Amino acid sequence: GATLGLMGGGQLGRMFAQAAAAMGYRVAVLEPQHGAPAAEVSAEHIEAPYNDADGLDRLAERCPCATTEFENVPAESLRRLAAKGTLTAPPAHAVAVTQDRNVEKHFVESVAGVPVAPHCAVLSEEDAAGVDEALFPGILKTARLGYDGKGQYRVKNRDELLQAFRSTNGVECVFEKMLPLKLELSVIVCRSLTGETKTFDAAENYHRNGILAVSVLPARISEAIAEKARAHAVRIADALEYVGVLCVEFFLLEDDTLLVNELAPRPHNSGHATIDACVTSQYEEQVRAMTGMPLGDTSRHSSAVMLNILGDEWFDAENRFRDPDWQAVLAVPGAKLHLYGKKEARRARKMGHVTCVAPTLDEAFERARAVARILGLPDPE
Ligand code: ATP
Ligand code: MG
Ligand code: MG
Protein backbone atom coordinates (compact mmCIF):
# COMPACT_ATOMS: atom_id res chain seq x y z
CA GLY A 1 0.00 0.00 0.00
CA ALA A 2 0.87 3.66 -0.14
CA THR A 3 2.62 5.67 2.56
CA LEU A 4 0.35 8.03 4.49
CA GLY A 5 1.75 11.28 5.84
CA LEU A 6 1.19 12.28 9.45
CA MET A 7 1.88 15.69 10.95
CA GLY A 8 2.45 15.37 14.69
CA GLY A 9 3.76 12.50 16.79
CA GLY A 10 1.50 12.36 19.87
CA GLN A 11 -0.91 9.66 21.03
CA LEU A 12 -3.62 10.62 18.53
CA GLY A 13 -1.07 10.09 15.78
CA ARG A 14 -0.02 6.79 17.30
CA MET A 15 -3.58 5.45 17.23
CA PHE A 16 -3.99 6.78 13.67
CA ALA A 17 -0.80 4.96 12.63
CA GLN A 18 -2.05 1.76 14.26
CA ALA A 19 -5.33 2.00 12.29
CA ALA A 20 -3.39 2.74 9.08
CA ALA A 21 -1.11 -0.27 9.65
CA ALA A 22 -4.14 -2.51 10.16
CA MET A 23 -5.28 -1.50 6.68
CA GLY A 24 -1.90 -2.20 5.09
CA TYR A 25 -0.52 1.33 4.90
CA ARG A 26 2.90 2.59 5.95
CA VAL A 27 3.04 5.88 7.83
CA ALA A 28 5.67 8.61 7.57
CA VAL A 29 5.47 11.05 10.47
CA LEU A 30 6.83 14.59 10.64
CA GLU A 31 7.56 15.32 14.31
CA PRO A 32 10.46 17.18 15.93
CA GLN A 33 10.60 15.04 19.08
CA HIS A 34 12.75 11.90 19.02
CA GLY A 35 10.90 8.75 20.18
CA ALA A 36 7.46 10.44 20.13
CA PRO A 37 4.48 8.06 20.61
CA ALA A 38 3.51 8.01 16.91
CA ALA A 39 7.09 7.80 15.67
CA GLU A 40 7.57 4.45 17.39
CA VAL A 41 4.79 2.81 15.38
CA SER A 42 5.45 4.55 12.06
CA ALA A 43 7.63 3.19 9.25
CA GLU A 44 9.45 6.47 8.88
CA HIS A 45 10.17 9.41 11.17
CA ILE A 46 11.17 12.75 9.70
CA GLU A 47 12.58 14.53 12.75
CA ALA A 48 11.88 18.14 11.90
CA PRO A 49 9.67 21.01 13.05
CA TYR A 50 6.13 21.19 11.60
CA ASN A 51 7.07 24.20 9.48
CA ASP A 52 10.41 22.85 8.21
CA ALA A 53 10.44 23.30 4.42
CA ASP A 54 12.81 20.42 3.82
CA GLY A 55 10.90 18.06 6.10
CA LEU A 56 7.60 18.99 4.45
CA ASP A 57 9.05 18.41 1.00
CA ARG A 58 10.33 14.99 2.04
CA LEU A 59 6.89 14.11 3.43
CA ALA A 60 5.21 15.32 0.24
CA GLU A 61 7.57 13.24 -1.94
CA ARG A 62 6.59 10.04 -0.17
CA CYS A 63 2.92 10.59 0.54
CA PRO A 64 -0.02 11.02 -1.82
CA CYS A 65 -2.05 12.19 1.17
CA ALA A 66 -1.35 13.45 4.68
CA THR A 67 -3.21 14.19 7.89
CA THR A 68 -2.63 15.91 11.23
CA GLU A 69 -3.03 14.79 14.80
CA PHE A 70 -2.21 18.13 16.41
CA GLU A 71 -4.41 21.19 15.94
CA ASN A 72 -1.55 23.69 15.89
CA VAL A 73 0.34 22.31 12.90
CA PRO A 74 0.58 25.57 10.92
CA ALA A 75 -2.07 25.82 8.20
CA GLU A 76 0.78 27.16 6.06
CA SER A 77 2.53 23.77 6.31
CA LEU A 78 -0.59 22.05 4.98
CA ARG A 79 -0.70 24.57 2.13
CA ARG A 80 2.88 23.69 1.27
CA LEU A 81 2.05 19.97 1.17
CA ALA A 82 -0.99 20.66 -1.02
CA ALA A 83 1.12 22.79 -3.37
CA LYS A 84 3.45 19.78 -3.78
CA GLY A 85 0.48 17.65 -4.80
CA THR A 86 -0.19 15.93 -1.44
CA LEU A 87 -3.85 15.89 -0.53
CA THR A 88 -4.31 17.00 3.07
CA ALA A 89 -7.18 15.87 5.25
CA PRO A 90 -8.01 18.17 7.00
CA PRO A 91 -7.60 20.85 4.33
CA ALA A 92 -5.50 23.92 5.19
CA HIS A 93 -8.42 26.36 4.93
CA ALA A 94 -10.43 24.43 7.55
CA VAL A 95 -7.47 24.19 9.93
CA ALA A 96 -6.88 27.93 9.57
CA VAL A 97 -10.44 28.61 10.76
CA THR A 98 -10.06 26.43 13.84
CA GLN A 99 -6.69 27.91 14.86
CA ASP A 100 -8.19 31.22 15.91
CA ARG A 101 -11.09 31.19 18.38
CA ASN A 102 -12.48 34.49 17.03
CA VAL A 103 -12.44 33.30 13.42
CA GLU A 104 -13.85 29.92 14.46
CA LYS A 105 -16.75 31.38 16.45
CA HIS A 106 -17.61 33.75 13.63
CA PHE A 107 -17.54 30.87 11.15
CA VAL A 108 -19.69 28.54 13.26
CA GLU A 109 -22.27 31.22 14.00
CA SER A 110 -22.43 33.25 10.79
CA VAL A 111 -21.39 30.80 8.08
CA ALA A 112 -22.59 27.44 9.41
CA GLY A 113 -25.53 29.01 11.27
CA VAL A 114 -24.94 27.10 14.50
CA PRO A 115 -25.14 28.98 17.83
CA VAL A 116 -22.09 29.63 20.03
CA ALA A 117 -21.68 31.22 23.50
CA PRO A 118 -22.20 35.01 23.76
CA HIS A 119 -18.73 36.48 23.24
CA CYS A 120 -16.68 39.30 21.79
CA ALA A 121 -13.17 39.65 20.41
CA VAL A 122 -10.66 41.34 22.76
CA LEU A 123 -7.68 42.43 20.68
CA SER A 124 -6.74 45.53 22.66
CA GLU A 125 -7.19 47.22 26.06
CA GLU A 126 -9.84 49.43 24.43
CA ASP A 127 -11.79 46.30 23.46
CA ALA A 128 -11.50 45.05 27.05
CA ALA A 129 -12.70 48.40 28.40
CA GLY A 130 -15.68 48.33 26.04
CA VAL A 131 -17.07 44.79 26.42
CA ASP A 132 -20.78 44.50 27.03
CA GLU A 133 -21.64 44.40 30.76
CA ALA A 134 -23.92 41.40 30.05
CA LEU A 135 -20.84 39.21 29.33
CA PHE A 136 -19.71 39.28 33.00
CA PRO A 137 -18.77 37.03 34.71
CA GLY A 138 -16.84 35.49 31.85
CA ILE A 139 -13.76 33.69 30.59
CA LEU A 140 -10.97 35.37 28.67
CA LYS A 141 -9.29 32.88 26.31
CA THR A 142 -6.25 33.48 24.15
CA ALA A 143 -7.43 33.20 20.55
CA ARG A 144 -4.61 30.88 19.54
CA LEU A 145 -2.69 27.89 20.91
CA GLY A 146 -4.70 27.16 24.09
CA TYR A 147 -5.55 23.58 25.11
CA ASP A 148 -6.44 21.74 28.34
CA GLY A 149 -7.73 25.08 29.67
CA LYS A 150 -4.34 26.78 29.30
CA GLY A 151 -4.44 30.48 28.44
CA GLN A 152 -7.84 30.97 30.12
CA TYR A 153 -8.76 33.48 32.83
CA ARG A 154 -12.04 33.52 34.71
CA VAL A 155 -12.98 37.11 35.53
CA LYS A 156 -15.85 38.66 37.50
CA ASN A 157 -15.62 42.26 36.36
CA ARG A 158 -13.98 44.73 33.99
CA ASP A 159 -10.97 45.38 36.26
CA GLU A 160 -10.16 41.69 36.38
CA LEU A 161 -10.65 41.45 32.63
CA LEU A 162 -8.15 44.26 31.98
CA GLN A 163 -5.69 42.65 34.38
CA ALA A 164 -6.11 39.25 32.70
CA PHE A 165 -5.70 40.75 29.21
CA ARG A 166 -2.49 42.52 30.28
CA SER A 167 -1.15 39.28 31.73
CA THR A 168 -1.36 37.71 28.25
CA ASN A 169 1.02 40.46 27.05
CA GLY A 170 -1.71 41.73 24.79
CA VAL A 171 -2.13 38.72 22.50
CA GLU A 172 -5.46 38.44 20.69
CA CYS A 173 -8.20 36.99 22.89
CA VAL A 174 -11.87 36.18 22.95
CA PHE A 175 -14.08 36.95 25.94
CA GLU A 176 -16.99 34.58 26.58
CA LYS A 177 -19.86 34.75 28.99
CA MET A 178 -19.61 32.13 31.76
CA LEU A 179 -22.52 29.79 31.12
CA PRO A 180 -24.46 27.46 33.44
CA LEU A 181 -23.49 24.09 31.96
CA LYS A 182 -25.64 21.02 32.46
CA LEU A 183 -23.35 18.81 30.37
CA GLU A 184 -20.46 18.96 27.96
CA LEU A 185 -20.89 16.89 24.82
CA SER A 186 -18.85 16.14 21.73
CA VAL A 187 -19.76 14.78 18.33
CA ILE A 188 -17.18 13.35 15.98
CA VAL A 189 -18.09 13.79 12.36
CA CYS A 190 -16.19 12.42 9.36
CA ARG A 191 -16.53 13.81 5.88
CA SER A 192 -15.23 12.09 2.76
CA LEU A 193 -13.65 13.55 -0.37
CA THR A 194 -17.03 13.26 -2.08
CA GLY A 195 -18.85 15.10 0.72
CA GLU A 196 -20.40 12.04 2.36
CA THR A 197 -20.70 12.50 6.16
CA LYS A 198 -21.05 10.13 9.10
CA THR A 199 -21.30 10.96 12.78
CA PHE A 200 -20.62 8.92 15.90
CA ASP A 201 -23.00 8.97 18.85
CA ALA A 202 -22.51 12.05 21.01
CA ALA A 203 -20.18 11.54 23.97
CA GLU A 204 -20.56 13.14 27.40
CA ASN A 205 -17.34 14.61 28.78
CA TYR A 206 -16.01 15.41 32.25
CA HIS A 207 -12.85 17.40 32.93
CA ARG A 208 -10.54 17.60 35.95
CA ASN A 209 -8.11 20.52 36.20
CA GLY A 210 -9.02 21.51 32.64
CA ILE A 211 -8.09 18.08 31.22
CA LEU A 212 -10.59 15.54 29.91
CA ALA A 213 -10.93 12.87 32.61
CA VAL A 214 -13.97 10.76 31.68
CA SER A 215 -15.92 10.31 28.47
CA VAL A 216 -19.25 8.46 28.34
CA LEU A 217 -20.52 6.91 25.09
CA PRO A 218 -23.38 7.38 24.36
CA ALA A 219 -24.19 10.63 26.17
CA ARG A 220 -27.17 10.37 28.53
CA ILE A 221 -29.31 12.91 26.66
CA SER A 222 -32.65 12.82 24.85
CA GLU A 223 -32.82 11.54 21.29
CA ALA A 224 -33.88 15.06 20.21
CA ILE A 225 -30.77 16.72 21.64
CA ALA A 226 -28.53 13.94 20.30
CA GLU A 227 -29.98 14.39 16.81
CA LYS A 228 -29.58 18.16 17.00
CA ALA A 229 -25.92 17.84 18.02
CA ARG A 230 -25.21 15.46 15.13
CA ALA A 231 -27.00 17.75 12.67
CA HIS A 232 -24.99 20.76 13.92
CA ALA A 233 -21.74 18.82 13.50
CA VAL A 234 -22.64 17.89 9.92
CA ARG A 235 -23.59 21.49 9.07
CA ILE A 236 -20.21 22.70 10.33
CA ALA A 237 -18.27 19.99 8.46
CA ASP A 238 -20.19 20.80 5.25
CA ALA A 239 -19.73 24.56 5.64
CA LEU A 240 -15.98 24.03 6.17
CA GLU A 241 -15.84 21.74 3.10
CA TYR A 242 -14.03 19.51 5.51
CA VAL A 243 -12.28 16.24 4.67
CA GLY A 244 -11.45 13.82 7.48
CA VAL A 245 -12.37 13.62 11.15
CA LEU A 246 -13.61 16.71 13.00
CA CYS A 247 -14.63 16.94 16.64
CA VAL A 248 -17.31 19.44 17.64
CA GLU A 249 -17.44 20.24 21.37
CA PHE A 250 -20.81 21.40 22.71
CA PHE A 251 -22.21 22.95 25.85
CA LEU A 252 -25.67 21.81 26.91
CA LEU A 253 -27.05 24.51 29.21
CA GLU A 254 -29.37 24.06 32.18
CA ASP A 255 -32.32 25.08 29.97
CA ASP A 256 -31.30 22.54 27.25
CA THR A 257 -29.88 25.18 24.90
CA LEU A 258 -27.18 23.53 22.77
CA LEU A 259 -24.17 25.70 21.84
CA VAL A 260 -20.88 24.93 20.14
CA ASN A 261 -17.87 25.44 22.40
CA GLU A 262 -15.03 24.78 19.97
CA LEU A 263 -13.81 22.62 17.11
CA ALA A 264 -10.84 20.25 16.95
CA PRO A 265 -9.81 19.45 13.34
CA ARG A 266 -8.61 15.92 14.12
CA PRO A 267 -9.51 12.77 16.03
CA HIS A 268 -10.30 13.70 19.63
CA ASN A 269 -9.65 12.38 23.13
CA SER A 270 -13.41 11.95 23.60
CA GLY A 271 -13.39 9.66 20.55
CA HIS A 272 -10.93 7.11 21.97
CA ALA A 273 -13.89 4.95 23.01
CA THR A 274 -14.83 4.49 19.34
CA ILE A 275 -11.88 2.04 19.05
CA ASP A 276 -13.48 -0.46 21.40
CA ALA A 277 -17.18 0.44 21.21
CA CYS A 278 -17.89 1.13 17.52
CA VAL A 279 -17.73 -0.86 14.29
CA THR A 280 -15.27 1.68 12.85
CA SER A 281 -13.01 3.86 15.02
CA GLN A 282 -12.42 7.58 14.52
CA TYR A 283 -8.85 6.70 13.49
CA GLU A 284 -9.94 4.24 10.82
CA GLU A 285 -12.38 6.88 9.52
CA GLN A 286 -9.44 9.27 9.17
CA VAL A 287 -7.57 6.67 7.09
CA ARG A 288 -10.64 6.01 4.94
CA ALA A 289 -11.41 9.70 4.39
CA MET A 290 -7.89 10.72 3.38
CA THR A 291 -7.42 7.77 1.02
CA GLY A 292 -10.75 8.33 -0.72
CA MET A 293 -12.27 5.11 0.60
CA PRO A 294 -15.93 4.85 1.60
CA LEU A 295 -16.49 5.86 5.23
CA GLY A 296 -17.09 3.02 7.70
CA ASP A 297 -20.05 2.15 9.86
CA THR A 298 -19.97 4.46 12.90
CA SER A 299 -22.58 2.54 14.86
CA ARG A 300 -21.88 1.45 18.38
CA HIS A 301 -21.87 -2.25 19.35
CA SER A 302 -21.20 -1.53 23.04
CA SER A 303 -21.64 1.18 25.61
CA ALA A 304 -18.42 2.61 26.98
CA VAL A 305 -16.89 4.68 29.75
CA MET A 306 -13.38 5.92 28.98
CA LEU A 307 -10.96 6.97 31.72
CA ASN A 308 -7.89 9.01 30.84
CA ILE A 309 -4.71 7.89 32.61
CA LEU A 310 -2.41 10.75 33.52
CA GLY A 311 1.14 10.57 34.82
CA ASP A 312 -0.25 11.34 38.30
CA GLU A 313 -1.33 7.69 38.51
CA TRP A 314 2.36 6.69 38.75
CA PHE A 315 2.65 8.41 42.14
CA ASP A 316 1.15 6.75 45.23
CA ALA A 317 -0.37 8.52 48.25
CA GLU A 318 3.13 9.04 49.70
CA ASN A 319 4.28 10.54 46.36
CA ARG A 320 6.42 7.46 45.63
CA PHE A 321 6.86 6.50 41.98
CA ARG A 322 5.55 3.05 40.98
CA ASP A 323 3.77 1.48 38.02
CA PRO A 324 -0.02 1.29 38.25
CA ASP A 325 -1.42 -2.21 38.80
CA TRP A 326 -2.18 -3.21 35.19
CA GLN A 327 -2.73 -6.83 36.26
CA ALA A 328 -5.70 -5.74 38.34
CA VAL A 329 -6.99 -3.32 35.68
CA LEU A 330 -6.93 -6.00 33.00
CA ALA A 331 -8.73 -8.45 35.29
CA VAL A 332 -11.82 -6.21 35.12
CA PRO A 333 -14.17 -7.60 32.45
CA GLY A 334 -14.53 -5.31 29.44
CA ALA A 335 -11.55 -3.14 30.43
CA LYS A 336 -9.40 -2.29 27.39
CA LEU A 337 -6.01 -0.73 28.20
CA HIS A 338 -4.24 1.63 25.81
CA LEU A 339 -0.78 2.95 26.72
CA TYR A 340 1.01 5.48 24.55
CA GLY A 341 4.59 4.38 25.16
CA LYS A 342 5.68 7.72 26.63
CA LYS A 343 9.17 7.52 28.06
CA GLU A 344 8.54 9.32 31.31
CA ALA A 345 5.44 9.63 33.51
CA ARG A 346 4.90 13.21 34.57
CA ARG A 347 1.94 14.69 36.41
CA ALA A 348 -0.84 15.94 34.08
CA ARG A 349 0.75 14.15 31.10
CA LYS A 350 -1.65 11.90 29.17
CA MET A 351 -0.06 8.43 29.40
CA GLY A 352 -2.91 6.22 28.26
CA HIS A 353 -6.57 5.43 28.71
CA VAL A 354 -8.84 2.57 29.69
CA THR A 355 -12.13 2.06 27.89
CA CYS A 356 -14.63 -0.07 29.77
CA VAL A 357 -17.12 -1.59 27.37
CA ALA A 358 -20.32 -3.46 28.25
CA PRO A 359 -23.73 -4.21 26.76
CA THR A 360 -25.29 -1.42 28.85
CA LEU A 361 -24.01 1.89 30.16
CA ASP A 362 -24.82 0.88 33.75
CA GLU A 363 -22.49 -2.12 33.44
CA ALA A 364 -19.82 -0.03 31.70
CA PHE A 365 -19.95 2.38 34.67
CA GLU A 366 -19.67 -0.47 37.13
CA ARG A 367 -16.54 -1.68 35.36
CA ALA A 368 -15.13 1.84 35.09
CA ARG A 369 -15.64 2.35 38.82
CA ALA A 370 -13.70 -0.86 39.47
CA VAL A 371 -10.84 0.39 37.26
CA ALA A 372 -10.94 3.85 38.87
CA ARG A 373 -10.60 2.31 42.33
CA ILE A 374 -7.53 0.31 41.24
CA LEU A 375 -5.91 3.40 39.72
CA GLY A 376 -6.86 5.66 42.64
CA LEU A 377 -9.07 7.86 40.45
CA PRO A 378 -12.33 9.49 41.58
CA ASP A 379 -15.46 7.45 40.78
CA PRO A 380 -16.90 8.29 37.35
CA GLU A 381 -20.61 9.15 37.62
P1 ATP B 1 -9.38 21.51 25.05
O1 ATP B 1 -8.38 20.78 25.89
O2 ATP B 1 -10.73 20.83 25.00
O3 ATP B 1 -8.88 21.93 23.70
P2 ATP B 1 -9.39 24.36 25.59
O4 ATP B 1 -8.20 24.77 26.40
O5 ATP B 1 -9.38 24.63 24.14
O6 ATP B 1 -9.71 22.84 25.89
P3 ATP B 1 -12.19 25.15 26.06
O7 ATP B 1 -12.74 23.89 25.54
O8 ATP B 1 -12.53 26.41 25.38
O9 ATP B 1 -10.59 25.10 26.28
O10 ATP B 1 -12.58 25.31 27.60
C1 ATP B 1 -12.15 24.37 28.56
C2 ATP B 1 -13.27 24.07 29.54
O11 ATP B 1 -13.62 25.25 30.29
C3 ATP B 1 -14.56 23.64 28.86
O12 ATP B 1 -14.54 22.27 28.54
C4 ATP B 1 -15.56 24.01 29.95
O13 ATP B 1 -15.56 23.06 30.99
C5 ATP B 1 -15.00 25.31 30.50
N1 ATP B 1 -15.57 26.47 29.78
C6 ATP B 1 -15.04 27.03 28.68
N2 ATP B 1 -15.80 28.06 28.24
C7 ATP B 1 -16.84 28.15 29.10
C8 ATP B 1 -17.98 29.03 29.19
N3 ATP B 1 -18.18 30.00 28.31
N4 ATP B 1 -18.85 28.84 30.22
C9 ATP B 1 -18.62 27.84 31.13
N5 ATP B 1 -17.58 26.98 31.09
C10 ATP B 1 -16.69 27.13 30.09
MG1 MG C 1 -9.41 23.39 22.51
MG1 MG D 1 -12.27 22.16 24.66
Automatic annotation (TrEMBL):
GO molecular function: 5-(carboxyamino)imidazole ribonucleotide synthase activity; ATP binding; metal ion binding; phosphoribosylaminoimidazole carboxylase activity
Residues that span the membrane, as ranges: none
SUPFAM superfamilies documented for this protein: Glutathione synthetase ATP-binding domain-like, PreATP-grasp domain, Rudiment single hybrid motif
Chemical reaction(s) catalysed: 5-amino-1-(5-phospho-beta-D-ribosyl)imidazole + hydrogencarbonate + ATP = 5-carboxyamino-1-(5-phospho-D-ribosyl)imidazole + ADP + phosphate + 2 H(+)
Alphabetized PROSITE patterns for the sequence: ATP_GRASP (PS50975)
Pfam families, per the entry: ATP-grasp, PurK_C, RS_preATP-grasp-like
Swiss-Prot/TrEMBL GO biological process terms: 'de novo' IMP biosynthetic process
Signal peptide annotation: none
Record-listed E.C. numbers: 6.3.4.18
InterPro entries, alphabetized: ATP-grasp (IPR011761), ATP-grasp_carboxylate-amine (IPR003135), ATP_grasp_subdomain_1 (IPR013815), PreATP-grasp_dom_sf (IPR016185), PurK (IPR005875), PurK_C (IPR040686), PurT/PurK_preATP-grasp (IPR054350), Rudment_hybrid_motif (IPR011054)
Recorded GO CC terms: cytosol
Binding positions (ATP): 101, 141, 146-152, 176-179, 184, 207, 261-262
ATP-grasp domain segment(s): 106-291
Keywords linked to the UniProt accession: ATP-binding, Ligase, Nucleotide-binding, Purine biosynthesis
Pathway: Purine metabolism; IMP biosynthesis via de novo pathway; 5-amino-1-(5-phospho-D-ribosyl)imidazole-4-carboxylate from 5-amino-1-(5-phospho-D-ribosyl)imidazole (N5-CAIR route): step 1/2
Oligomeric and partner information: Homodimer.
UniProt family annotation: Belongs to the PurK/PurT family.
UniProt name for this protein: N5-carboxyaminoimidazole ribonucleotide synthase
Organism: Sutterella megalosphaeroides
Protein's gene: purK
